[in-house]
């Protein structure tokens, strides 16, 4: 596939350049949950990536990103296929982890300090920057916890484990296997994992470094040191005065890999990739189910007696450990931050779309509107005059004449942008280069697909 992109790189640039710089605003399908923020971080392209970026944060609409892919067309030149995605917060390649911390994570620390459960997940395709992001966020969290600015006396304990399939290991005890067992109160206990008291910043840094050195990594096609397990850093903040504790979970999930990326691996690695993908799928169902449960609760204002959405947290070791985060019957206050990490390269465009689609699905569905399919249809219908004006403004140079690319006059006054209702006779137009005509045709087609 990379060869196909490399061969058509100039075509890709010309198609992207020909796009409308102000696409019509995206109508959001979801909204932020009351206790959850879903964000996306686009990492910068690295020096050894040969293909251009396929992700374009939209300047005219906040937190919306356009992803343009180049696809083979069975009859003719490759065409551009575009998708757009919306998240609650979007971080551009130039954003720093410090900015992400201030915007998303800084609030979780005092929340956990005062007895809440704050959870951060970094999710994304292998090589997209999850470990890079979570490692720095852990240091920034440690700074805030240890700088003495938070009110009150607390004791801090740290546990770092990793989960590979259904097996769990203690990263602070030389990767010793541990068991995940449910106690009589229904709480999942990490039996055998050591909880380390943390007295100062140096202690915390040393523990984080030690855990990193024991993390299970293996090369993948996209990342020479890919994390092949989910790392869970749990910080327990104990208030000796009243015996309560707050929890902070920082979770660097294993990289998801598509079927194409794992094809070169042996049977063990394929099994491992399958387990990772299954646990990520269960996680998605749990985060979404919990967000829906939270929304239902906050809208109805009460918990008792109402039927809450099913949250399948028992289906994987990862979500069993985080049961108290997902259990809709749980009484503890929780806040969740999801960072979908994205590699912008055109070579990674498929996984990028999956990651962003996943992120969008985690947002709670927006309130039902009264919009009918007839309303939606009329929204993309223009009069012939409007359509002609649009063609004139967008066809590039030399101009494509109305008589060449024109809406078919069929007696009806309104036309939509479907291939069936616009006549493309670009190839026969004297003075119009074939390339330009094809680009224009694919642009019309693109508008039709995305409308
Ligand atoms: N925001 C960024 N700025 C600069 N470099 C980055 C950024 N994010 C990631 N990188 C670089 O990209 C490479 C891959 O990052 P990282 O190992 O964090 O990916 P990952 O998503 O954790 O991958 P895997 O799931 O395979 O472990 C690393 O070399 C890292 O330094």
From TrEMBL:
Residues involved in ATP binding: 124-131
Classification of source organism: Eukaryota, Fungi, Dikarya, Ascomycota, Pezizomycotina
Keywords: ATP-binding, Hydrolase, Motor protein, Nucleotide-binding
Chain ranges passing through the membrane: none
Domain of life: Eukaryota
Family matches, as InterPro entries: Kinesin-like_fam, Kinesin_motor_dom, Kinesin_motor_dom_sf, P-loop_NTPase
Cellular component GO terms, alphabetical: kinesin complex; microtubule; spindle
One Pfam entry name: Kinesin
Protein name: P-loop containing nucleoside triphosphate hydrolase protein
Record has ATP-binding as a keyword: yes
Domain Kinesin motor: 35-365
Gene Ontology biological process terms, A to Z: microtubule-based movement
GO molecular function, one term: microtubule motor activity
Family per record: Belongs to the TRAFAC class myosin-kinesin ATPase superfamily. Kinesin family.
């Amino acid at each position: 596939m990379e060869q196909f992109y490399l061969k058509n790189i100039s075509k890709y640039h010309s198609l992207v350049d020909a796009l409308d710089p102000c696409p019509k605003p995206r109508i959001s399908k979801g909204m932020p949950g009351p206790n959850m923020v879903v964000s996306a971080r686009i990492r910068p392209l690295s020096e050894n990536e040969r293909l251009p970026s396929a992700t374009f944060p939209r300047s005219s609409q906040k937190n919306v990103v356009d992803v343009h892919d180049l696809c083979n067309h069975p009859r003719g030149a490759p065409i551009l296929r575009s998708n757009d995605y919306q998240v609650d917060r979007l971080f551009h390649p130039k954003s720093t982890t410090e900015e992400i911390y201030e915007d998303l994570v800084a609030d979780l620390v005092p929340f956990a300090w005062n007895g809440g459960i704050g959870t951060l997940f970094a999710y994304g395709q292998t090589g997209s920057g999850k470990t890079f992001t979570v490692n720095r966020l852990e240091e920034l969290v440690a700074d805030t916890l240890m700088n003495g600015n938070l009110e009150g006396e607390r004791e801090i304990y740290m546990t770092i484990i990793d989960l590979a399939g259904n097996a769990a290991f203690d990263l602070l005890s030389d990767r010793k296997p541990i068991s995940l067992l449910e106690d009589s109160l229904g709480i999942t206990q990490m039996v055998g994992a050591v909880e380390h008291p943390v007295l100062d910043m140096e202690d915390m840094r040393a523990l984080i470094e030690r855990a990193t050195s024991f993390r299970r990594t293996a090369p993948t096609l996209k990342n020479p040191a890919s994390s092949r397990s989910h790392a869970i850093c749990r910080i327990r903040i104990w208030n000796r005065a009243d015996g309560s504790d707050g929890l902070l979970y920082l979770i660097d999930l294993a990289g998801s890999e598509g079927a194409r990326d794992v094809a070169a691996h042996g049977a063990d690695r394929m099994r491992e990739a399958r387990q990772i993908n299954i646990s990520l799928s269960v996680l998605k169902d749990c985060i979404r189910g919990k967000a829906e449960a939270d929304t239902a609760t906050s809208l109805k204002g009460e918990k008792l007696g109402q039927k809450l959405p099913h949250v399948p947290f028992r289906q994987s070791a990862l979500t069993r450990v985080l049961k108290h985060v997902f259990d809709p019957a749980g009484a503890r206050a929780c806040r969740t931050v999801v960072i979908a990490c994205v590699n912008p390269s055109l070579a990674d465009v498929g996984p990028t779309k999956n990651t962003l689609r996943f992120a969008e699905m985690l947002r709670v569905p927006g309130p039902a509107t009264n919009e009918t399919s007839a309303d939606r249809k009329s929204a993309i219908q223009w009069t012939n005059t409007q359509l002609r004006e649009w063609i004139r403004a967008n066809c590039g140079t030399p101009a494509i004449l109305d008589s060449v690319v024109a809406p078919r006059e069929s007696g009806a006054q309104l036309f939509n942008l479907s291939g069936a209702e616009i006549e493309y006779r670009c190839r026969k137009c004297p003075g119009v280069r074939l390339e330009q005509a094809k680009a224009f045709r694919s642009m019309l087609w693109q508008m039709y697909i995305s409308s």
